[in-house]
Write a structure and sequence with these properties.
This protein is about 20% helix and about 20% strand. It is an alpha/beta fold. The structure holds zinc ion. The site of zinc ion has 5 residues, from helix 6.
């Protein structure tokens, strides 16, 4: 009997989890593609360009600028519990800030293997003090809605939820080039917390022509009210949802690259970020599965799936880190595509530039690469000769270059390659390292 009961409980829980869509980012991008055909390709191109720039920048520049972003909350409520108090909103701001500055207490739970790459993003958030008319504000807009939920069917949930951004059915955005707009509303469906949130990714530079994909009124983040702040809702949601969605808003992707179930661990499905290990699937609730290691578990230097990452689907209790490269990418996107929302730049992150850190391994990055690569050699010896050689899958050489006996060098070259290749770094006649590498025109 007890066994049967446990089985029923277990089944109910997994059913609930299956119903919870968590983040609607994939569906949302599909929806935006129907509105603006080509937007996904453009988002891809911008992603790889930012990634390339941030990877080049992040290695050498002191991360000394602290950016403060102006935030406005639009709270749409139908019943009292949806009209979140100022205290709940402020507690969410605290969670957001702690997560992006890596000052949250649960950072002690980051496994030792990931501590070296766990990063203070150097971005923080403040409720706007001045509204678009120049009047003082609390940074929180509240509005009644006759809708009990913004989701009326299981399919196209994000399409329906977009209504929250309209003046007629929700609350119109404040100037999205000056504020991070966060809409909080009911995204449940038939009592299930179906959709927890979604975000508009950076897809356009400011001042682009009106024919571009700029859709000013939609820029921002939407979250389910039950995910917000320290509150009493006994649900399966997490108040790290907003941390995750703001990550999307600043251009991050899911760490498993949204790989389809039948094509896991394919290097084409990845976030292409070097310090988040390749993962074949999202880490779903319940619990923190520290044994999860979906790809290449037999490789000697393989790392487990980074379930601590905010851009996974693991429960909020497991999430406590962004990586250094994710931080670099968000900062790059912020200053390139969303510079107007920066309210303040300060230099609190320490006047000392980051110390020079010699490479801990011999490698070539970025991966994927297009028009340049950086070669890192661990402990190079001045008298030795070094060489980079790239061959195609048939073993035919397509690029070869003598290297300096230096630990880090950048090679500018329009490789004109596309697809998978093998690179080798030679020390004299010996192969120091050999690995696969993706090239493309990004
Ligand atoms: Zn997501």
């Amino acid at each position: 009997m007890r066994g049967v009961l446990l089985f029923i409980i277990g089944f109910t829980v997994s059913f609930l989890y299956a119903q919870t869509e968590q983040c609607g980012q994939v569906e949302y991008m599909d929806y935006l593609e129907t509105l603006s055909p080509g937007i996904k390709e453009q988002a891809d191109n911008m992603y790889f360009e930012s990634l390339r720039q941030s990877q080049a920048r992040n290695k050498w520049d002191a991360k000394d600028t602290l950016y403060t972003i102006n935030v406005v909350f639009h709270v749409m409520y139908n019943i009292g519990e949806e009209n979140l108090t100022d205290e709940v909103i402020k507690s969410q701001m605290d969670i957001l800030n702690a997560s992006y500055r890596r000052t949250n207490e649960d950072t002690v739970l980051t496994r030792d293997i990931f501590k070296p790459v766990a990063a203070d993003v150097g971005i923080q958030f403040q409720l706007a003090k001045v509204d678009p008319n120049g009047d003082s504000t609390s940074g929180i807009v509240r509005k009644y809605t006759p809708r009990s939920s913004y989701v009326t069917s299981q399919r196209f949930a994000t399409l329906q939820a977009e209504q929250v951004k309209t003046a007629a059915n929700g609350s119109a955005a404040w100037d999205t080039e000056k504020y991070l707009n966060i809409w909080v509303c009911d995204l449940s469906y038939l009592g299930y917390d179906l959709l927890l949130g979604f975000a508009y990714p950076p897809t356009s530079a400011p001042n682009w022509p009106s024919t571009s994909y700029v859709n000013a009124d939609r820029q921002g983040v939407v979250v389910h009210y039950k995910t917000v702040g320290e509150n009493s809702f006994t649900t399966l949601t997490s108040n790290k949802t907003l941390v995750h969605e703001v990550g999307h808003y600043l251009g991050l992707r899911h760490i498993w690259g949204d790989a389809p179930a039948n094509d896991r661990c394919n290097h084409n499905y990845d976030d292409f970020i070097n310090d988040t290990p390749l993962a074949g699937s999202s880490s779903d609730a319940p619990g923190c599965n520290y044994n999860k290691n979906t790809c290449d578990p037999l490789e000697p230097d393989d790392l487990p799936d980074q379930i601590e990452n905010y851009m996974d689907y693991s429960p909020g209790t497991c999430q406590n880190m962004f990586t250094s490269d994710q931080a670099g990418l968000m900062r790059q996107n912020l200053i390139t595509y969303r510079p107007g929302i920066i309210a303040l730049k300060t230099y609190e992150m320490g006047p000392e530039p980051m110390p020079y850190i010699p490479p801990t391994e011999t490698r070539v990055y970025p991966n994927p690469a297009s028009t340049f690569v950086v070669v890192e050699i661990k402990d190079p010896i001045k008298e030795n000769r070094y060489k980079l050689k790239i061959t195609n899958v048939l073993g035919q050489p397509v690029f070869e270059k003598e290297l300096e006996s230096e630990s880090r060098q950048r090679i500018e070259y329009n490789f004109g390659l596309s697809g998978f290749y093998i690179y080798q770094i030679f020390e004299n006649e010996d192969v120091m390292v050999e690995d696969r590498m993706l090239f493309g025109q990004f």
